[in-house]
Amino acid sequence: MAADQDRWQLLLFPDAASSVAGSVDTLFWTMVVVCGLIVVLVFTLLLVFSVRYRAGARVDRTPSPKLFNNRWLEIGWTLPVLAGFLVFFGWGAALYVDIFDPPARAGEDVRQVNVIGKQWMWKFQHPEGIREINDLHLPVGQTVELRLTSQDVIHSFFVPAFRIKQDVLPQRYTRLRFTPVKTGRFDLFCAEYCGLSHSGMVGKVVVMAPERFQAWLERRDRGESPAREGERLFRQYGCSGCHGAASRVDAPDLAGLYGKPVPLESGETVTADAQYLRDSVMFPSRQVAAGYPDIMPSFKDQISEEDLLKLLAYLQSLDESSRADAPRQQETDAP
Amino acid sequence: MIRDARTGPAPRHHYLNAGHGLASWFLTKDHKRIAWLYFVSITGFFFLGGLAATLIRLELITPNGDLLSSDAYNRLFSLHGIVMVWFFLIPSIPTTFGNFLLPLMVGARDLAFPRLNLLSWYVYIIGGLFTLIAAVAGGIDTGWTFYTPYSTLFANGAVLAAATGVFIVGFSSILTGINFIVTVHTMRAPGLTWFRLPLFVWAQYATSLVMVLATPVLSVTLVLLAVERVFGVGIFDPSLGGDPVLFEHLFWFYSHPAVYIMILPAMGVVSEVVSCFAHKRIFGYRVMAFSILAIALFGFLVWGHHMFVSGQSIYAGVAFSLLSFLVSVPSAIKIFNWLATLYKGRVRFDAPMLFAMSFLGLFLIGGLTGVFVATLALDVQMHDTYFVVAHFHYIMVGGAVSAYMAALHFWWPKITGRLYPEMWARVSAITVFAGFNLTFFPQYILGWAGMPRRYHAYVEDFQLLNVFSSAGASMLAVGYLLPLIYLLWSLRYGAHASANPWNARGLEWTVPSPPPEENFERPPRVEHEAYAYDTDA
User: Fold this and answer.
1) In B, which residues are within 8 Å of A78 by CB distance?
2) Cys-Cys with B241: which of A271, A330, B207, B234 at CB 3.0–4.6 Å?
3) A111-219 — its CATH code?
4) From B143, B365, B380, residue closest to A39, measured CB to CB
């Protein structure tokens, strides 16, 4: 019996384990109550009218005074519906923008985790270099930003207890930011149908108290951080041959590039975000930086998603270190 | 009141005995016989799709995928979706009741293009055959949505055959749409002005507009998909420089309006039935007509609400959410107007009315839960879960199929000249209503708790509600099989129907049941508004 009660509890009030889950639930239950009242109202009217005015019943059927037959009645029930709906629209939209484009808080320590979806597993890499498959360990209370991509088809990263979901696309980076606020093991599902073992593409997000998480980190074989590995790959793939400091090839300097506006040959300006850098490696001719010849070869089919994410981490780290270093010559060198 | 006038002598000559032999059916240009060709074919597809649904529900009784393999399960839900959407729901009311009734309701001898009408049935059947071949040749496992790059690069199976089937059947929709539009514009009887048309005709008209404008987008999308799969041209495949999200945009630009192709005709049916069984003019006729057009128009502007977590711009999401809220307003108006029609009416509870009342209740719940998924922050949780599955089944099955059943019973005496057994029909209506809620209401809770759709196996916590759902499905199956038996029975043993067994208004009730081949002896002249029920009598 107690077990049964727990089960219903779990279904109607699923774990609310992220910083936004509580707000989503408040919105949900408010709508359940309001819509529930509408359902009760309509069902009651349906039953009362059809029984009271059933054929053969002797009731007063003289047409109502004009007040109830005119368009004011129509307007009278349309406007409240519209107003009520607009409230829900605004509430839901504000919360949605908050989930997907959260305001940056100064000094916030965001944990960047790389996620690769493939038929039919989830691969994670932590900033410390630790790799996991299907399980993702996180410390409670720290904001996480996932950078997600797919190796094959479209997947979707869904943790019901966090009330978040984000599609994971091939050749594209999406990001998802959230803060776990409860410790525990929470289901991770692939929500976008991805073929044969779609329902097997599941895992657990394990949220731990900070000190237990530290202990977990210590126990794991760390390897190198993605940024350090990326630095090695930068040489290994030959990127440094053109983009390195000592290079004589006419190629843009990449230090400090991440997050900056880049003027293109076509006259547009784009931001050098993860997607732009990725496209520049895979489809270099698509968006050529202004003032440079279109000579970079494509690395499509030559570089794995894992390595690309590490290269990105390296380029991103260049930004941070160069900022820390004081304004150096890149200001004058960079285009 | 003339209730005992349900039965009457059968007319000597009518469209059913106007010709005999296969050719008289397969080469007919009579809209009433073509409606029968569609009846038989879509009924076949309905039970094929239903069989797939039965197997799906059987599998989901237990959390481990143990009855079927993952592959078989994936193929079954794809078959279920493709067959139910394109070969049952979209053609359902327009090609059968629309075909049969539109000329009768506007006082015409036939549709504007009788040959085109027959051609559209053949096109439908060829499309259907392609799909059946796809099912037999190993099936496809892409889901009815054909999302790329899964469908183009990874799915093995008869993707091309199925897509070809859907491509072909699209032309059937377009031809039917053109035929209806021209008929309503040019063939109305003298005196039958636009605002004297029954709402069923308005609904068919709006549906036809959507068919003609939206279906070509689907055709183009499927051609692009084939071009990519066959010639390797990068359109949707990102490794060729294409964009898979582009496919989602194009697909939903058709497939969201497609929902209105299913629900608008249902709204037309319910307006006819509610008005007849309340014996009262529909409340707010003009508002009802305009809200049909408004839904058809807004339906084109909301496709992006299927993609709130797809990686499209979040501000595009905000715009699509707002537009989706707006489209729900005319639907809400319609529900209030149907209720107001009952007020001070003379309500009878014959089977068509019971089905129409089911429609009202289920469409209301489906519509309100549609507001949940239009709310951005909630859709993040609900998207691609059973909440969405429950929502669209409330609209498409609870709404559209209930209305189809209401229409089937309401016009059965007109179409066949026979009365169906009323008691059994009421049993069916109540069984369907109860079974439907038991099947799909638990799925709302499952979705809220996070159970993703298209899952062959699921976590154990979800089992209890899945068992409820499967139990409900078996009730639903009984509710849908009953009419198949008693309606067939009535074809031979049912009492002969009079011309107007329901004491209804509308031109179709002024001709004998079944109608003569030429519909009207003399072209009718219309001097009244629609639904001229004598409320004071």
Assistant:
1) 329, 332-333
2) B234
3) 2.60.40.420
4) B365
Residues 6+ apart with CB under 8 A from B493: none
Q: Which domains does chain B have, with CATH numbers?
A: 30-510 (1.20.210.10)
Which conformational region is residue A224 in: left (phi greater than 0), alpha (psi within -120 to 50 degrees), or beta?
A: beta
The dihedrals phi and psi of A133, each to the nearest 5 degrees, come to -120, 125
Q: At a CB cut-off of 8 Å and minimum separation 6, what does A32 contact?
A: none
Q: ipTM value of the model? A: 0.92
Average pLDDT over every residue of B405-409: 97
Tell me the chain B residues in contact with residue A286 when contact means C-beta distances shorter than 8 Å.
241
Q: Which CATH class is domain A226-333?
A: mainly alpha
Structure tokens at B396: 């498409």
Hey, CA dihedral for B96, B99, B102, B104, is it positive or negative? negative
How many whole angstroms separate alpha carbon B132 and alpha carbon B107?
A: 38
Q: What percent of chain B has pLDDT over 90?
A: 84
Identity of the residue in B74, B147, B535 whose CB atom sits nearest the CB atom of A61? B535
What tens digit of pLDDT does each residue of A5-44 get?
777 888 888 999 999 999 999 999 999 999 999 999 999 9
One-letter amino acid at B218 equals L
Q: What tokens were used for B296?
A: 């058809």
**CA-CA distances (angstroms) from residue A230 to A234, A304, A317?**
6, 12, 10
**Residue B251's Cα: distance from chain center in Å?**
19
Q: Are A258 and A252 in contact (CB under 8 A)?
A: no
User: Does the beta-carbon distance from A11 to B462 stay under 8 Å?
Assistant: yes
Question: For the segment B114-148, what is each residue's pLDDT rounded down to a tens digit?
Answer: 999 999 999 999 999 988 888 778 788 999 999 98
Q: Say yes or no for a CB contact (<8 Å) between B65 and A49.
A: no
pTM here is 0.92
Chain A nearest-CA distance from B9, in A, is 27
Task: State how far the Cα of B241 lies from the Cα of B27, in Å rounded to an integer.
Answer: 49
- Residues from chain A that touch B70, judged by Cβ atoms under 8 A, are 196-200
Which residues, in sequence order, are CB contacts of B123 under 8 Å at separation 6+? B168, B169, B171, B172, B175
